[in-house]
């Protein structure tokens, strides 16, 4: 028999866990972690340059400097697995004063995620920037670890339901705590990596960068996981202590 207080804590904890997992999954799958606002093209020469950047972004080889310049100049958005630019349609680069804009996205492949970063983006002779390289790798591996921990917690919770036992709830709470810490570390790695990228790259004039809603979803997910962990651990510990006291009373 589970006390109503513990049952309520378990229900709230699992609801918070579900919300946190959904927020994190959406954040990982979307590209709006960081957004650039770029000035419009001025003149045919500038339009031709931007069109060349767009074509290189979509069809060219993977290169950090190339896609970074495209993001800077073409209202780009950058996520953990996607990079996107906002560009006119093919007919709108020169002929229309207010062309129709379309979002075009390219995904990062797994080998591209592991590609080293260089002290000067695009210059392989400048030497590998170990800090940026490992920040980049951590920012896409840690959310996968976090989701994996949540899935493992779900499997343990399913087993606990089949066994009609609250003993595994403590382990479930600890798994959620680790998931929240991994998510928080993801956001920290991403912000640190973007800050270092802007230090080694030359941002064009009148280009502004802002944090996107995908990053905020991940940031919200972390405390939700931790609150769920606190409720689950409290319910498991309190119920265990109450059970032991009741057993001792009956024995006495």
Automatic annotation (TrEMBL):
**UniProt entry tagged with the keyword Ribosomal protein:** no
Keywords from UniProt, A to Z, are:
Membrane, Transmembrane, Transmembrane helix
Q: Tell me where the transmembrane regions lie.
A: 140-162, 169-193, 213-236
Q: Could you tell me where this protein is found in the cell?
A: Membrane
Q: Which InterPro entries match?
A: CLDN1, PMP22/EMP/MP20/Claudin
| Membrane topology designation | Multi-pass membrane protein
The lineage's top-level taxon is Eukaryota
Stored PANTHER family: CLAUDIN DOMAIN-CONTAINING PROTEIN 1
Name assigned to this protein: Claudin domain-containing protein 1
Give a single Pfam family match: Claudin_2
User: From which source organism is this entry?
Assistant: Denticeps clupeoides (denticle herring)
Q: Does the keyword Transmembrane apply?
A: yes
For this record, the Gene Ontology CC terms, alphabetical, are: membrane
């Amino acid at each position: 028999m589970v006390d109503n207080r513990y049952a309520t804590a378990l229900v709230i904890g699992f609801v918070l866990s579900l919300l946190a997992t959904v927020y994190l999954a959406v954040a990982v799958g979307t590209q709006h972690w960081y957004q650039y606002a770029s000035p419009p093209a001025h003149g045919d020469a500038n339009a031709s340059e931007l069109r060349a950047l767009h074509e290189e972004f979509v069809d060219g080889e993977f290169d950090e400097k190339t896609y970074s310049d495209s993001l800077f100049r073409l209202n780009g958005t950058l996520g953990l697995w996607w990079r996107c630019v906002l560009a006119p349609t093919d007919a709108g680069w020169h002929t229309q004063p207010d062309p129709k804009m379309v979002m075009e996205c390219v995904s990062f492949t797994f080998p591209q995620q592991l590609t080293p970063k260089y002290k000067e983006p695009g210059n392989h002779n400048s030497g590998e920037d170990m800090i940026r390289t490992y920040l980049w790798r951590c920012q896409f591996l840690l959310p996968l670890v976090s989701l994996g921990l949540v899935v493992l917690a779900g499997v343990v919770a399913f087993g606990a339901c089949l066994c009609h036992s609250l003993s595994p709830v403590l382990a479930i709470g600890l798994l959620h705590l680790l998931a929240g810490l991994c998510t928080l570390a993801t956001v920290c790695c991403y912000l640190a990596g973007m800050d270092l990228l802007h230090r080694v790259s030359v941002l064009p004039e009148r280009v502004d960068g802002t944090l996107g809603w995908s990053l905020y979803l991940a940031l919200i997910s972390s405390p939700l996981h931790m609150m769920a962990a606190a409720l689950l651990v409290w319910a498991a510990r309190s119920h265990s202590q109450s059970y032991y006291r009741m057993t001792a009373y009956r024995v006495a």
